[in-house]
Amino acid sequence: RKNLEKMSSKRQKKLQARKNQTLEEQEDEIEYVPRDAKVKITWPRTLAGIDDSKFICIWPNNINSKKTIIRGRRIAKEAGCEDPLVHEMSEVCQYYKLTHVVEPYKQIPRDFNFYPGRIKVQLVDENGKIMNQEVPNRRSLMLKMGELIPKLASRKKKQQQDHQAGIGTSGTLTTGAAGGNKKKGKKKGRR
Q1: Structure pTM?
Q2: Backbone angles phi and psi of 76, in degrees to 5
Q3: Are 147 and 92 in contact (CB under 8 A)?
Q4: 90 with 118: CB under 8 angstroms?
Q5: Contact at 8 Å (CB) between 123 and 131?
Q6: CA 189 to CA 136: how far, in whole Å?
């Protein structure tokens, strides 16, 4: 009976130590805040809170050359770019001085496993006048995005980092398993 009391007290001490340890860890951790789909980033910032109900909506899938038409691509593959990000699309809109709203956590219903976000752009003002003559409609804006996004400095920098990460210590490009994966031929069944 004394052994049981000793074991229980040791066990209680261990449990108390674990509780104290978890309390200390919780104090050190950063509080997790879930992504809010209602977050909006307006450009220019002075127009924060603008009514964007009349703006056109463009998803990254609309200009992604890797996507099919069923998955949301809206322009030719040759005119699109590979894996565009919302902030890159925003840079193109800033280049053309178009008022736009970035919604970084929205997800396209057709392909929710890919890059999140969408951009809403104001192409015409309240009077119906085109904001920028170079991009009079949605299609021309998507074509300009497909043309300019691969030329962005941030995109080139990212590609250089990816390329350097792919180079091994010997200076050659690392690939999959060495050796051939030859098929030996059709196996014969029972005769």
Answers
A1: 0.64
A2: -65, 150
A3: no
A4: no
A5: yes
A6: 67
Which residues contact residue 9 at a Cβ distance below 8 angstroms, ignoring those fewer than 6 apart?
A: none
The string of pLDDT tens digits covering residues 4-55 is 444 567 777 777 777 676 555 544 444 555 566 667 777 777 777 788 888 9
Q: For residues 137 and 80, give the distance between their C-alpha atoms in angstroms, rounded to a whole number.
A: 16
CB neighbour list of residue 82: distance below 8 Å, 6 or more residues apart: 64, 65, 66, 150
Phi-psi region of 83 (alpha: psi -120 to 50; beta: other; left: phi over 0): left
Say if residues 99 and 121 touch (Cβ distance below 8 Å).
yes
Letter for the amino acid at 132?
N
Partner residues linked to 100 by β-bridges? 43, 121
Let me know the angle formed at the C-alpha of 84 by 64 and 51, rounded to the nearest 5 degrees: 100
Q: How far is CA 134 from CA 97, 127, 141, 172, in A?
A: 11, 18, 8, 44
The 10s digit of each residue's pLDDT in 134-151 is 999 999 999 999 999 999
- Which pair of structure tokens corresponds to residue 167? 């180079």
CA distance 162 to 165: 5
Residue 177 corresponds to which amino acid? A
Q: Distance between CA 37 and CA 158 in Å, rounded?
A: 26
